[in-house]
Amino acid sequence: MRGEDLQQQELFSYGSLEERVPPDHPLRPIRTMVDAALRDMSRRFDAIYGEDGRKSIPPERLLRALLVQLLYSVRSERMLMEQLEYNLLFRWFVGLAVNEPVWHPTVFTKNRDRLLEGAVSEEFFSLIVEQARAKKLLSNEHFTVDGTLIEAWAGQKSFQRRKNGEDILNPPPNPGNNPTVNWHKQKRRNDTHQSLTDPFARLFKKTRGAEARLAYMGHVLTENRNGLVVDVRVTQATGTAERDAAVDMLSWKPASKRVTLGADRGYDTAGFVKQLRERKVTPHVAQNDSHRRSAVDARTTQHDGYRISQRKRKRVEEVFGWMKTVALQRKTRFLGPDRTSWIFTLAAAAYNLVRMRNLLAAPA
User: What angle, rounded to 10 degrees, do the helices at 105-116 and 337-361 form?
Assistant: First the structure.
């Protein structure tokens, strides 16, 4: 017997959000880890927010909302607010009651900017890493480093010639939001041009034959046991940025502790390998012997550990793949390296949360 398509609205709905979310939902263990980190950040939140004035959006809810945006690839904060209106799962994760009003997108953005001004994402990321260390998921001896391009929030037409190496010329005089620009036979270089939209972005390409784009460079340091991210950096896109960031991300290492560092052949330079050896870091760097002699010699490559590191280092691409496709880090929505670094660090923390959930749920 065919059922009738009756669309009668119910006057009351019984049950809490906690009952609506299945006990085995994958967001539950993530919410537990997030809440533990946010409790430890209470003092930092007290330092950011004063005691006077109107009450703001709770910073804990702000961070949970930003995390769910990254975890579910919500491409804008306006769309995130729309999702919070009717998505009960999002409401439960953020901490909103069923009948609690959702913030206006502009209000959410203004409150989010206050978190951007503090090192909130860095501390949150560090606390998630400490949780992974407490659960014995991290290696303390074997690491991998790599970098990737993050396309800047600036168009090619904003890349204008400087005047006297300092001031930027005005945009093309013809009217309209999308003026016609002719770059034919014009050399466009970072030392002679600068973006009007994001002056810190640099025109760069990472591989030969690729298109040069205005971009930043994101760097991650992962451990080799489970591929978790233990440190991140965002820098301007330059030819030496990857190697400089790698050395910087190893600054925490005690002088007496010896570790290994895997990397691709772009790190195979005499200067970088020398810096690693001076810091008692064994350079498990892929040999670049296509055009010149490699800086990594047989005293390193003869060991089984080198071959293991070369196999493990490729897992760092999984981090970049997830962050770019799921967490929407292929192109930043922020201007400047500081804000781009803030959201990139939060995306790395989100990746660790997903990875830790999967590792802890896997049978022993």
Answer: 90
Please report, as a single letter, which amino acid is at residue 349.
A
State how beta strands 229-236 and 213-223 pair.
Answer: antiparallel
42-61 pLDDT, tens digit each: 888 777 776 666 677 788 88
For residue 147, the cross-strand partners are: 219
d(CA 106, CA 347): 22
Q: What is the pLDDT of residue 99?
A: 83
Output DSSP code: residue 319: H
Which amino acid does the sequence have at 44?
R
48: amino acid identity, one letter:
I
Residue type, 292: R
Q: CA quadruple 90, 92, 95, 96: dihedral positive or negative?
A: positive
Task: State how beta strands 167-168 and 193-195 pair.
Answer: unpaired
Whole-number Å distance between alpha carbons of 305 and 143: 12
The answer to whether 286 touches 314, Cβ cutoff 8 Å, is no
Helix (H) or strand (E) holding 306: helix 304-312
- Quick: pLDDT tens for 65-99: 999 999 999 988 899 999 998 888 989 899 888 88
∠ CA 67-82-22, nearest 5°, is: 60
**Of all helices (H) and strands (E), which one includes residue 69?**
helix 59-71
Rounded Cα distance between 96 and 33, Å, is 18
Query: Nearest-5° angle of CA 255, CA 237, CA 145?
Result: 40
Take residue 311 and report the two structure tokens written for it: 């196999």
256/157 Cα distance (integer angstroms): 51
**Sign of the Cα pseudo-torsion (240, 242, 243, 244, in order):** positive
SS3 content of the chain, % helix, strand, coil (to 5): 45, 15, 40
Query: CB burial class (10 A; 0-12, 13-18, 19+) of residue 239?
Result: exposed
DSSP string, 125-173: HHHHHHHHHHTT---SSEEEEEEEEEE-S--GGGEEEEETTTEEPPPPS
